[in-house]
Amino acid sequence: MTESEALFLRTLEDIERRLGQTDPYEILFIAALIRKLFLDDFPLVDQVNRNHKIKLTFETTLPIELPKDFPAPSFWTVQDGLDPDTAIPGKRRYTTSRDQFFQTVVTIVNDHQYSVREVVLFEANVMGAVHAGSPKTDKEHALKQVDSTIAVGGYASSLRQLQAIARVVLKTLSPLRAAASAA
Predict the structure, then answer these.
(1) Number of domains in the chain
(2) Is the dihedral angle over the CA atoms 157, 116, 56, 9 positive or is it negative?
(3) CA distance 2 to 179
(4) Which residues contact 183 (CB under 8 A, 6 or more apart)?
(5) pLDDT of residue 1
C-alpha cells in the first residue's frame, strides 16, 4: 500500500467518524477532508486513482425545477435531498461526473446560487475548516448571513448541507476504497 492510499483510507475513515458526530466543530472538518480529496491542487483521489483507474461517478437526485415564470426563492436548500438514500422516496436518481457533481446547485440565497464546490470551499475557507476567514464577496456574505439566521436540523444550513455531500462522496469512493484496501 502506498502512502497516498493509506492517507486516502484514513481520510475516508475520518469523514465517516465525523458524520456520526453531533458537534458542529467535528462536522465542519469534513469540508477540509473533501477539499483534500477533490479540490486541492493535487487531489488525493487523483493520486490514488492513478494506479487503479476506476471510473468514479456520483449518484444524486436533482432538485425540483421551478416553472419558467416562477419567481426565484429568497432561500432554498436541497439538504438531504441530494443523497438518493435520504431524499424524498421516489425521487429520480442521476449519475453525474465529478465536474457535474461539484457544479450541482444545492442552495440559493436571494439571487446567489451555491454549488457543492462552493459550499465545501465556504466551510473550508470562510467558516474555518482550513482557514479561519471572513466573507470576501457579496455571495459569501449572503451565505454567512443565512447561516447565522437559519438552522436546519440544529446546524447552520451550509454545514448541514455538508453532511449530505459527504455521504454522496463516501458512496462514490467505495470502489476506489476497496481497491486501495486490497493493494
Answers:
(1) 1
(2) negative
(3) 12
(4) 1, 2, 5, 51, 52
(5) 86
